[in-house]
């Protein structure tokens, strides 16, 4: 494929598990600063697509280019370092550490131009922790033990831990599951803010939430794209209503 301006270019991506194609010749392009939502019925292949992009699952064929770099050949670790962050459904925060410490340990080691000047590094990390804490609405909870946060705040903290790495592509699997209505609204605002500086892919079932955040929606069905359009068009699509929205 030729060089493109897309942050992510997925082409003809297929993975088969014992002959069953969970993702079947999928082609999808994500723009810079785009917030894309992926929806579809259970088993459509949504989580598998994120697993393939972050290297957790290896593709059978096809290509995944992130800023024109082929990801299918890289390890999970190398993909993180290339600038792809992934949040799973269950938060993996350190419950017995403070919010501050959770963010601090997520700062990438060996980054920055401070060389061996330890105090400079400390200041750089502290600035970043405070910046991220403000983004995730936890500025007032920096000293709190993470275990004491609400369910929603724990989800935000995990998003914050990913933001510490400043990924250019952030992928979130059902970020508002189990959240209160107010937390959902706050999460929508949060995602609308953070996609100003990066691309975001969200898997979500909550259509009210999807409406608030999606630039475009990709509907997956049996490992293939059934529709890819802005939300209002997707909601009026007969095929989408039949396999998903009508249920
Ligand atoms: N490692 C694996 N081995 C075998 N089958 C798998 C594997 N991972 C996923 N599958 C199958 O691939 C299909 C797609 O699963 P996937 O979890 O991606 O769907 P999903 O769209 O995320 O569904 P849900 O909304 O329920 O999370 C399912 O039939 C699943 O059982």
Automatic annotation (TrEMBL):
Domain ABC transporter: residue ranges: 8-247
GO molecular function: ATP binding; ATP hydrolysis activity
Record keyword Transport present: yes
Organism (species): Pseudomethylobacillus aquaticus
Keywords on record: ATP-binding, Nucleotide-binding, Transport
PROSITE patterns hit by this protein: ABC_TRANSPORTER_2 (PS50893)
GO cellular component: plasma membrane
Name this polypeptide is given: Urea ABC transporter ATP-binding protein UrtD
Entry-linked InterPro entries: ABC_AA/LPS_Transport (IPR051120), ABC_transporter-like_ATP-bd (IPR003439), ABC_transptr_urea_ATP-bd_UrtD (IPR017781), BCA_ABC_TP_C (IPR032823), P-loop_NTPase (IPR027417)
